[in-house]
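The material for today's practical consists of a large collection of protein records. An example says more than a description, so a record of this kind follows:
***
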Amino acid sequence: MSRSSVERETGRLNSLKAMASSSAVEMYLRKDGVAVISIQNPPKNTLNNSVMSGLQKHFREAQTRADVNAIVLTGSHQNFSFGVDITLFQYIQKKGSDRDVQFVPAIPFMSMIEDGPKPVVAALEGYAIGAALEMTLACHARLGSSNAKFSIPDFYNGIIPGLGGTQRLPRLMGLQKTLEFFWMTKPWTATEALEAGMIDGIIENGQVVEAACDLALNIFLGKVPWHKSLERVDRLESFGEALNILRRARMQAKRDHPNLMHPLICIDVMEEGVLKGGLAGAMLEEKFSHALVNTPIAKGLMHVFFARRSVSKIRGITHDVMTPRKMSCVAVVGCDIAGASIATSFLLHKLRTIVKANNDDDLQKIISFIKKNIEKCEAQRMISHKQGGKLAGLLSGTTDYKELHAADLIVEAMEEDPQGQREKVLRILANISKPNSILVTNSSLVKLSALSIAQPLHSHIFGVHFMSSAYDNELVEVSFLEGTLPQAVLDVFALLKSMNKVPVTLKCSPGLIVDRLLHVLSLSRLLLIDIGVDKGRIHVLLKDFGMDMNLLQFKVIEDDALLAKSMTFTEGNAILSEHQKLPSLLDDDVLDMLLFPVVNEAFWILHEEVAGSAEHIDICSVLGLGFPSYRGGILFWARMVGMDYIFSQLSLWSNQYKGFLKPLLEQDKSAQFEVRRKFPARL
């Protein structure tokens, strides 16, 4: 054999050895007889079939080996686990069944941990999410690092826990606390988990595995009690109190989430455990957790989950190639409510913020707006009073443009544009800003390509439209020119994501996605009012459909004023009198006439390539328009309804009412192929 052949063979053998050792789950035995089982699936240690099979294999081995006294379950790479890989649910939804998915049976697996002959302690560092957290509940004790975070977000994916979480958590911390935990939008800290009874101690970062090994050995030696969560009753409320808690929870779920069934199913499953015992509850939980994955609600919520992530990705721009620059100082030009809202959003994320106004009176006005916003955040417990005081220290104001030179990013947020002053202001900002600073306009009316701003600033200018109440709305619509520097794009998106925003990219064009959808919805409403549908009925129907009526604000073109000016859509261009026969519209008809034109406008936005995908429009409709997230967004919902039906109804109405109801497919035949290509399943 030649030298090169030997080298190739050696390389192949080394590669095989590396593959053999690179398991998704690893186990090693310490000298004291404690077996440490660790999840090794970076970066988030998600639970897939390989991980679950590995856990089952190593637990079975550790429980039967004579030289193993106790077991510690832990993660790796600074995290325990982020739970089940949610793409598995997406796969099941596409297939329509989980028949070809080889799940590790939940109840036997959890019983192997909980009822096995060796004590098991979970060592939790970083995030313990969803099914991963449920798995630790079958352990006989749990220790968390000081940076640990705990969450079961199944409710927000349209499903319920599936590894016994509805049964073991109430037995560790009571039904009331468990319900609060399930409905929480933010993960619990280690301190919150300890106070509730979820974990048994907090250990300094980096030392939790060692502490867990000591605890596991002490349980084995009988120095510490051996607790099985599913059998505990000492922390569960009394029978009567438990039933009352569940009754109140059921009433609240019906009131707060009238269109959702999985919160009620979750409560029913918890009640099963109270009435018949933890094992019976776990069996019912497993049944429903599988069944709920394929419901329309779960499909809609998971679609939004994935869409939120996909819309913020910029093709060709990654952290692997470039590193975003850190921004420490931002400036906002504009002394109205919108400017104050944007400035508040920056302050909440600890950015030094300068606000610019034309005179001292206007400056005091915007600072007053900002302080009121901070007080509102304190009242809503978004921040503490002490934190609010610190944020005020990051705010400064000026009437001099030159004071903005230090800013890494400057936002023009003038609500009005008297005598075309906006472009003049942008030119001034371009002249006074430092090299590589980023210039942003919050207006949807500015045509970026037409701005007479010299290079290099022209490659650093963006349209970044914050929603009203920018500090508590996630959505930001972002547009930029083809010549915009990739580094600047990365910087802007990194900043927005660090502020917990969802930046959605759109093509530079007059009007934004949310504005266009909102405008058509408002016109639909006007049409219905014009033909005699009561305003109150419209409001109730939209609310019952699930629209966020606090977020949904119709374009304040005064409806009554418009009607008084005879802006009508019926044939003859005249308002219907009370003596004319009004059409008999069912509630479903009214809702369709409100929303189908919005679907039509969404397709126009797609056809004009203002939005890069249907997901962009869905996220804008959910976060900006108030469309219910459990319906997946306006276009996802339209696909569920059926595009043929929607366009046939639009065609029917366009013959009865003038103008905007005519469907895209009739107005632009070239769009027909594009629509059918993007939505083939239902057309």
In short: The CA atoms of residues 377 and 383 lie 6 Å apart. The chain has three domains: 18-294, 329-508, 514-678. Confidence is low (pLDDT under 50) at residues 1-22, 555-581, 679-683.
